[in-house]
Write a structure and sequence with these properties.
Blueprint lengths: L7 E5 L4 H12 L3 E6 L2 H11 L4 E5 L5 H15 L4 E4 L15 H22 L8 E5 L12 H20 L6 E7 L5 H10 L4 H10 L9 H12 L10 E4 L7
Parallel strand pairs: 1-2, 1-4, 2-3, 4-5, 5-6, 6-7
Helix pairs in contact: 1-8, 3-4, 4-5, 6-7
């Protein structure tokens, strides 16, 4: 029997690497999954890759309240319940010092990474079944500073506050709320960050990041999916309000 048998999960950022890996694992464990993302084309491509009868998708801009309400309505229409919410959507912004950071990009990062989590918690959690689980993707950047990534770092710190408040406010329904803090993940976002930092030598940026990781490599999306599965399952039924670091020892270095 799967660890998520008959559970219904929403995954935002569902067309990205972590979202796809998590959707596959949840489906393998018996869940019904709704992936949400801003691009219909990306969602269609992800759906073809995942290729499972218990998967559906919803085009959602997480920074818009109405889109979050639409996502909830879609899930309830299709499955009549919500047990698991993985607030995983996020963007990196750009790599610039604070004094030079473009205001419009700062606003975009705040809209997606911070408001997107806020609206998700506001509109999804009240509709969840008692005993459900919420996971929010933060980052090692939510626990330390990284020069040049001010907007990203700020939002990843801020959503820890949302997690802690939500863990308290929804505890009466035994709904668990936790954050996941990946180190650098071997995905498209890190390729963009590497190229943004050094357009001429992104490979050197990758090597530089790896030297800060005691295990000597980036995290794989499947490794994030495994901690998401643990937090979504009954194995974590007494764990709430906590930060879960998956970084190969980066923060100990």
């Amino acid at each position: 029997m799967g660890r998520l048998k008959d559970k219904v999960a929403i995954i935002t950022g569902g067309a990205g690497g972590i979202g796809i890996a998590t959707a596959k694992l949840f489906l393998d464990q018996g869940a019904m999954v709704v992936i949400a993302d801003i691009s219909k084309e990306a969602l269609e491509k992800a759906s073809l890759e995942i290729n499972h009868g218990n998967l559906s998708y919803c085009v959602v801009d997480v920074s818009k309240p109405k889109d979050n309400e639409k996502m909830v309505a879609h899930t309830l229409d299709v499955h009549n319940r919500i047990d698991i919410f993985f607030a995983n959507a996020g963007i990196e912004g750009t790599s610039k010092p604070i004094a030079e950071y473009p205001d419009d990009i700062f606003d975009s990062v705040i809209d997606v990474n911070l408001k997107g989590v806020w609206y998700g918690c506001k509109y999804v959690i009240p509709k969840m079944k008692a005993g459900g689980s919420v996971m929010i993707t933060s980052s090692v950047a939510g626990l330390k500073g990284f020069a040049g990534l001010g907007a990203y770092v700020s939002t990843k710190h801020a959503i820890i506050g949302i997690m802690r408040v939500a863990a308290l406010e929804f505890a009466s329904n035994k709904i668990r709320v936790n954050t996941i803090h990946p180190g650098p993940v071997n995905n498209d976002m890190m390729r963009r960050i590497e190229k943004d930092i050094s357009p001429e030598n992104p490979g050197e940026v990758l090597k530089g990041f790896e030297t800060t990781i005691p295990f000597g490599r980036y995290v794989d999306s499947n490794e994030i999916a495994q901690i998401a599965l643990f937090l979504a399952s009954e194995d974590s039924k007494m764990i709430t309000g906590c930060m879960h670091i998956v970084d190969g020892g980066m923060l100990t270095n």
